[in-house]
Amino acid sequence: xxxxxxxxxxxxxxxxxxxxxxxxxxxxxxxxxxxxxxxxxxxxxxxxxxxxxxxxxxxxxxxxxxxxxxxxxxxxxxxxxxxxxxxxxxxxxxxxxxxxxxxxxxxxxxxxxxxxxxxxxxxxxxxxxxxxxxxxxxxxxxxxxxxxxxxxxxxxxxxxxxxxxxxxxxxxxxxxxxxxxxxxxxxxxxxxxxxxxxxxxxxxxxxxxxxxxxxxxxxxxxxxxxxxxxxxxxxxxxxxxxxxxxxxxxxxxxxxxxxxxxxxxxxxxxxxxxxxxxxxxxxxxxxxxxxxxxxxxxxxxxxxxxxxxxxxxxxxxxxxxxxxxxxxxxxxxxxxxxxxxxxxxxxxxxxxxxxxxxxxxxxxxxxxxxxxxxxxxxxxxxxxxxxxxxxxxxxxxxxxxxxxxxxxxxxxxxxxxxxxxxxxxxxxxxxxxxxxxxxxxxxxxxxxxxxxxxxxxxxxxxxxxxxxxxxxxxxxxxxxxxxxxxxxxxxxxxxxxxxxxxxxxxxxxxxxxxxxxxxxxxxxxxxxxxxxxxxxxxxxxxxxxxxxxxxxxxxxxxxxxxxxxxxxxxxxxxxxxxxxxxxxxxxxxxxxxxxxxxxxxxxxxxxxxxxxxxxxxxxxxxxxxxxxxxxx
Length: 632
Description:
By secondary structure, this protein is mainly α. It contains 25 helices and six strands. The protein has helices spanning 3-26, 30-35, 42-53, 56-69, 74-102, 108-115, 119-152, 156-204, 208-217, 224-227, 249-253, 256-272, 277-283, 289-324, 357-362, 406-409, 424-432, 435-473, 477-501, 507-531, 537-558, 560-566, 568-573, 592-610, 616-622; strands at 327-339, 349-350, 364-370, 381-384, 390-392, 398-401. Strands 1, 2, 3, 4, 5 and 6 form a six-stranded antiparallel β-sheet that branches. Helix 5 (74-102) packs parallel to helix 12, helix 6 packs antiparallel against helix 7 and helix 20 (507-531) runs antiparallel to helix 21 (537-558). The chain is globular, with a radius of gyration of 25 Å. The protein starts with a helix and ends in a 10-residue tail after the last helix.
């Protein structure tokens, strides 16, 4: 680590520590710890909301997805701004703020529980949050560790531990005030970093028009595996359609990419944002509707810069890697052989000297090299050797021009031949941009990940402390803060374990899965609770349970990606999924959200019509009236 990197990092950590300490000093009560005393500055709230919403999963994970799938991922930016900012702030924001203040709710589960007069609903929501949010936290922490490890030349595991400890330190101490103050600083750093990234990328690629034309011209380079599922180039949407029942071969998968991109990446996150507990609680930290409205413009610009830049740069990374990348290095070996396994899908390993002829025949050829400034005890770099790769050897050093698209540049020792899209953005930053910008962007990614993780851990902690422990045990509020902090530690440890076990092409999937489950479980009862006085307690319970159960069933038994990865369906029924030839094979890639959310909403509506509504005086109280004399 050079002195400039060290100084920049120390200044950043000092600023974060100082703001966390200020949050700690201002945290006197449980209300301060949980909702910032309900008097947060609107700009700080908007930046905190945006910084929490946008994490390394958006920049690293979804940026990598854009490098794989193309500019069509930008539809997620459109939906993020429309749903995540306009609808969330203008439609949901003030009713949530007003009801949360009136009912004295400090968390999303507490708001739901008090709206329906049900401790069961509060505990149920908290359990879902506490059990599933580590999945999202895992995605964010992997994104941070993937970037930190190569910058500081440390192992992935070490990056994981250091990262988690730094975040834990200030969120455990400072509560929501410490989180929101640091979020605001981190949001400002993220804006500057992404602006520089966009400018440098277009400068490197010859300007706006030249860069996008070059990306369009790369269409013939789409890998066969992506072309087979509908990829038509990085500036075109995938092929749209629906496979006929019983389709096999190419016909069965021809439209898969469109449904993966639209149902999972775009809609899973774009709709799921409305039911994110860690974002909803932000609305309860401001004191007026005007403060919320003032946050719309700042939030919209922030989301546009964060997601729009990440997705555009991710797609354009293909142009850089294919046409501009030049690696100055010392080549160690030009014919290194790596084994992809019998089916060609296993993690690549070095070929053993006594390998059989069959194993040697399936092995792939790689170039191994060292970068300037690295020592012999540090790991070698591997590059898949293809006809596009050119090598120039010289006395003063060697030069490699890969000529590979982005995903092909991530194929290395330990990955599969499919590569790892989660490493595309970090690789692009380290290869294409100046060293000093790598440090700035390191702080950008640290900010993105830390702002989101801090809010995730805070939400997990309050779920176990306030919404479960205090609700069931009736604990005093001072003990609530202690239990909340214990819950944060449990959440951090769970995310670290998951981050160690699951790695590679997982960030975008895990994020979309969590957002989708939250939407199916919470959105109908949350929306109805804000706007429909006829909504009943049994309807809310039924909607939450049905939405969660349908999402879980679809993920475990129908969706090919998650069902195959989990292996539960295979273990129980001897088949990867329960889809048969009687159904269209396209169902295998439809996101659980598209099935679970309509069923959950229909359940809420039907059950509400056939069950007894809450007492009128209690409903009136929830919507701003006087507290009824009889507690419900």
